[in-house]
Write a structure and sequence with these properties.
306 residues; alpha/beta; Nucleotidyltransferase, domain 5; 2 domains; five-stranded mixed β-sheet; 12 helices
Length: 306
């Protein structure tokens, strides 16, 4: 009887850990499992394949089926929007699962579908980086941003941290708004003086370290720091521009719903409040909301409709 049923799997991939959910035709979750990274830029390709194999095998074993009994699947992960990465994963799944179709997509697409609990609409993500996506009912995608903290990621934690350092240095030279952020930034970075920030940014700090400074800006803004407030308001405007960009690019998307997510959205009420204010003013017909579901649920939705 199990052979006549359809089973779908969705994988929410990550740089540190990954999750799988196995569902039936009605979307009921039958099994879940966790494993390590599925990001080929975080661990070796061999380790990624081992983790993917473990995820699938654990899930199907829990339900009492074979992996060849699966109907379709979806892997959503950062970096899977590029053809080269997709080729690597496509070859793995073709070898591991045979003819079973597996959709490969970005984590933004799975978050959009999970957050909206559907296949069409928009998403705006502001975490360590930032990106906006739109998806039509037939799978056509539009995007804005997501170019990395060296080229953009406006409104993200990395952008906030980098901008705070740059503008604090400008403020010391009386070329920007006054601020009290220098001492907290130096302390967080383990530096002694403002001149050390040049070496820190250009040679010592990575994206994660720069992004870790964002909560200091939020804290300063809560205390009324003029420069910190201006940075967050500017960040909100930039995020609104990302959302506006994908909406303007996608007249074929009929569902006027935008899900907003990510660490900045969740933890910075100043930038989120300003963003909501701008979106309400500029796109009054757009329903803006926090996620209704997870990226893992989105992967399952995409698997079922692949």
């Amino acid at each position: 009887m199990m052979k006549n049923k359809k089973f779908f799997f969705g994988i929410d991939g990550g740089g540190t850990h990954s999750r799988i959910a196995l569902t039936d035709e009605q979307g009921n979750i039958l099994a879940e499992a966790q494993a390590g990274s599925t990001n080929i830029y975080s661990v070796t390709t061999e380790e990624v394949f081992k983790n993917l194999s473990m995820l699938v095998d654990t899930a199907v074993k829990a339900v009492g089926i074979d992996r060849y009994d699966l109907t379709a699947g979806c892997l959503g992960s950062a970096g899977l929007g590029r053809e080269r990465e997709q080729k690597i994963f496509r070859e793995f799944f073709d070898s591991f699962l045979g003819a079973i179709p597996v959709k490969l997509c970005s984590d933004a697409e799975t978050l959009l579908c999970g957050g909206l609990q559907g296949l069409e609409g928009y998403c705006l993500i502001a975490g360590t980086g930032s990106v906006a996506f739109g998806r039509s009912i037939n799978g056509m995608l539009v995007r804005a941003g997501g170019h990395g903290y060296m080229l953009g990621d406006e409104g993200s934690a990395a952008w906030i941290g980098r901008t705070a350092i740059a503008r604090t240095l400008r403020s010391l030279e009386h070329r920007d708004l006054p601020t009290q952020m220098l001492e907290p930034v130096l302390k967080a970075a383990g530096l002694a003086q403002s001149g050390d920030l040049v070496q820190y940014v250009h040679h010592d700090a990575d994206k994660a370290k720069i992004a870790a400074l964002a909560p200091l800006v939020t804290s300063a803004a809560r205390d009324g720091d003029p420069l910190a407030l201006d940075i967050l308001f500017t960040g909100a405007k930039e995020l609104a521009l990302l959302a506006r960009s994908v909406v303007d690019q996608s007249p074929m998307i009929g569902r006027r719903e935008l899900v907003i997510a990510g660490g900045v959205i969740e933890h910075d009420e100043i930038i989120t409040g300003k963003l909501m204010e701008i979106l309400c003013l500029e796109m009054p017909d757009m329903a803006v909301m926090k996620p209704k579901g997870t990226a893992l649920e989105g992967a399952c939705i995409l698997a079922k409709n692949y």
